[in-house]
Design brief:
The structure holds two protein chains of two kinds. By secondary structure, chain A is an alpha+beta fold. Chain A has helices at about 5-10, 45-55, 95-100, 105-115, 130-135, 145-155, and strands at about 1-5, 15-20, 40, 60-65, 75, 80, 85-90, 105. Chain A has six helices and eight strands. The chains are: A alpha+beta, B mainly beta. The interface of A and B includes residues 1 and 32 of A.
Chain lengths: ~160, ~110
């Protein structure tokens, strides 16, 4: 049922970044009920799809973090059946993760950058079924493309 | 209350373990599902932006006994979070991946 290895391999493997599609903490209207774990992904497509669902509730964003900022906080495991999300679960609540992120990208900017890199995603996912289908049918990015994604997002944030 | 099923296992002592993702409302032990439904597939990517259409809906009964997240027993499965529901009093032996547990049957497309 659980994969005890995948999150570790993803965290220790190639790539410098973790991504999370969500609402900014300030936009949540309900109390945080989670277990103090923040799910992230090593792939910005996964994070952007989550943001595309979250935009139904507010101004969704993609948070970009450096793996090296969370070395002592690796949690796990993930469910085997969700292996396609390439998830790395961190042992801290989402609002703490947000504070420690390096960049915060508006969902439309993330979609635009992914489009520039040749990935066309649905711009909004109205329900969980659409999210699941998008996650299972979308491609995953190569490591050099992920670095380029972060570079382009950074340029957008700096107004370049 | 909805739960998007990815798979299920019928274990010892009649406990049905269902993995998947919670819908927009949190799920707590004691919660009861009374329907299982399937959606009409939508075309990737643009069709996924359209509202869902329910293709089939069947009445069932499942009671959640325990909720598990990231391998730990918890008091609540928060909205949109993946987890495992340990269920009892189930009127079905297994539930298929890709279907949705719901608290009530909804109208299906013709």
């Amino acid at each position: 049922m659980y994969d005890d290895r995948q999150h570790l391999d993803l965290f220790l493997g190639p790539g410098r970044y973790l991504f999370r599609g969500t609402l900014p903490s300030s936009a949540f209207t309900t109390e945080y009920l989670g277990s103090g774990v923040t799910p992230t992904s090593i792939d910005p497509i996964v994070a952007t799809l989550f943001a595309c669902q979250k935009r139904m509730e507010g101004p969704a964003v993609v948070l970009v973090a450096l793996k090296s900022d969370f070395s002592d906080l690796l949690n796990g495991p993930s469910l085997k059946s969700f292996g396609y999300e390439l998830a790395v679960n961190l042992e801290l609540p989402p609002f703490e993760f947000e504070k420690r992120c390096r960049h915060c990208i508006a969902v439309n900017d993330s979609l635009a950058v992914l489009g520039e890199l040749g990935y066309r995603l649905p711009s909004v996912l109205p329900d969980g079924g659409a999210l699941t289908q998008a996650l299972t049918q979308s491609p995953r990015m190569l490591m050099d493309e992920i670095d380029r994604y972060v570079e382009l997002c950074q340029q957008l944030a700096e107004g370049g | 209350m909805e739960f998007y099923i990815s798979g299920s296992v019928n274990g010892e002592a009649g406990v049905l373990s269902i993995t998947g993702r919670c819908g927009n409302e949190p799920i707590r032990p004691g919660a009861e599902f009374r329907a299982i439904l399937s959606e009409k597939p939508r075309q990737y990517p643009d069709g996924l932006e359209l509202p869902r259409e329910i293709e089939r809906c069947k009445n069932i009964h499942i009671r959640v006994q325990e909720v598990e997240v990231y391998g730990k027993k918890v008091d609540v499965l928060p909205a949109n979070t993946t987890g495992v529901l340990r269920c009892v009093d189930s009127s079905v032996e297994l539930v298929p991946g890709g279907w949705i547990l719901s608290d009530q049957c909804v109208a299906t497309i013709a």
